[in-house]
Amino acid sequence: MQEALHVDGGAHNRQIVTNAENRLAAAGIQLPPAVAPFGAYVPAVRSGDLLFLTGMLPTLGHKPKYVGRVGKELTGEQGRSAAYTAALNALAVVREQLGSLDRISRVVRLTVYIAVAGAGVDQPAVADGASVLLRDVFGEDKMSARLVIGVASLPLDVPIELELIFEASD
Amino acid sequence: MQEALHVDGGAHNRQIVTNAENRLAAAGIQLPPAVAPFGAYVPAVRSGDLLFLTGMLPTLGHKPKYVGRVGKELTGEQGRSAAYTAALNALAVVREQLGSLDRISRVVRLTVYIAVAGAGVDQPAVADGASVLLRDVFGEDKMSARLVIGVASLPLDVPIELELIFEASD
Amino acid sequence: MQEALHVDGGAHNRQIVTNAENRLAAAGIQLPPAVAPFGAYVPAVRSGDLLFLTGMLPTLGHKPKYVGRVGKELTGEQGRSAAYTAALNALAVVREQLGSLDRISRVVRLTVYIAVAGAGVDQPAVADGASVLLRDVFGEDKMSARLVIGVASLPLDVPIELELIFEASD
Asked: For chain C, give me the number of helices (H) and strands (E)?
């Protein structure tokens, strides 16, 4: 596995091993096209080194791939797959914004919103569908902080929405 | 329409066209007084170039202007109006914090939390009540990333709460 | 009360009075051990001056100290105690990450997610369980922006989860 070393010249020197694109290719993962927003917003905004993503949903094209609540219309395993699908959409947006996943120096924070009907869902296991993909692509040294929140419903009645903040390097 | 050009001398040079105050005045919009917090928190915190706002509610004075859940006690159209009202409160806080809306170089991220009774609400349309105002005031080139989340209930039983992060320039 | 003065040499000069550790000791508060994450994430991520925490729960060790929803299985007062417990866990993570609470120059933003069964909960009063502790430890001049959100359920079926962003100084 080829690794490039990059030393940030800024205030916070940090050695960055950038091989996310290699890892993705080695895993045989092809990213979908980046989702285009429907309304008065954009897929991502960069401010300084931080890249804030729009809420990522488990969609394919502009259609929801999963509909329903985890623990009611959908199983926990389906919720986990939905989280994985939403995370793939996030990677597609990052690549479109920055040109390459290798420009991510850190996954700063991930929030996994899960549509649930009530208590009893293993929410961390559902959220791992996104977290594990991000770890496998960006590496253990770039793992994010994480929140998991069970909510009433989400846009398009999908089961998962991801909030993501990345740190980008130039 | 009068436009001022400002070139940020910092690490990320960015040409900023600042005419939000003009656009607001041209639209005949008067901002309410900035909401004063009730407890052990403040209306906004700036760290570096980022301005993090307290959750903005559809209140007038210290009273909720809308009460209930969208899709149950309130229609989608009322939800959209509540999102607009909350966004006006956000603008009032920004102007109070920075002196002028023209010091905003970017609307970084907007999260629209919508109190819902279940599925079936057109959440993006409700959220547009806030997004469209922000786009019309700050311009298309400063549009934010956005999340929309349907939740069980919000403080004062209002239908909308906005999370907002802005980028400020000096 | 001993106070150290620190002048940040960065772009935004700010005089920081750092006595959070003293205040904590004076109040006789002992922090629990910092919670270790279970999965593919870390307790906190620093990017620039911002420290983003993983969602803090009202746990002791790896067990939930409170289970249920506020206004249903739990009273508002229990919810407030749970928010306080989660905030203690946040302080423990901050100290572990930075070496000392005195390196916090600002509590930037706090979001209090409260698991509720419906309307009628005094959500701000519940959230104060966290906000008041943070104010008492870090001081009025470092008070955060705040959001309060009532949600369907949270991991481990706890009543409270905290989102926290701090600003750190070197």
From this structure: 3, 9
Identity of the residue in A143, A148, A151 whose CB atom sits nearest the CB atom of C152: A151
Spell out where A8-121 has E strands. Answer: 15-18, 44-47, 50-53, 59-60, 63-64, 104-115
Residue of chain C whose Cα is closest to the Cα of A131: C40
**Closest chain A residue to B69, measured at CA:** A152
Tens of pLDDT along B26-58?
A: 999 999 999 988 789 999 999 999 999 999 999
**Joined tokens for residue C115:** 């698991």
Closest residue on chain B to C123 (Cα): B155
Chain C nearest-CA distance from A139, in A, is 10
**Residues C27, C133 contacting (CB under 8 angstroms):** no
> Helix, strand, coil proportions of chain A in percent (round to 5)?
30, 30, 35
User: Which tokens in the block code for residue B59?
Assistant: 């209140």
Are the C-beta atoms of residues C114 and C127 closer than 8 Å to each other?
yes
Residues 6+ apart with CB under 8 A from A137: A20, A23, A24, A27, A29, A91, A101
Contacts of A84 (CB under 8 A, 6+ apart): A129, A130, A133
pTM: 0.90
ipTM: 0.89
Residue A90 phi, psi (nearest 5)? -65, -45
A42:B147 CB<8 A = no
Question: Strand runs (DSSP E) across chain A, as ranges?
Answer: 4-7, 15-18, 44-47, 50-53, 59-60, 63-64, 104-115, 145-151, 160-168
Contact B148 A154 (CB under 8 A): yes
Name the residue among A107, A146, A149 with its Cβ closest to that of C113.
Answer: A149
Query: Inter-axis angle of helices A123-138 and A76-98, to 10 degrees?
Result: 30
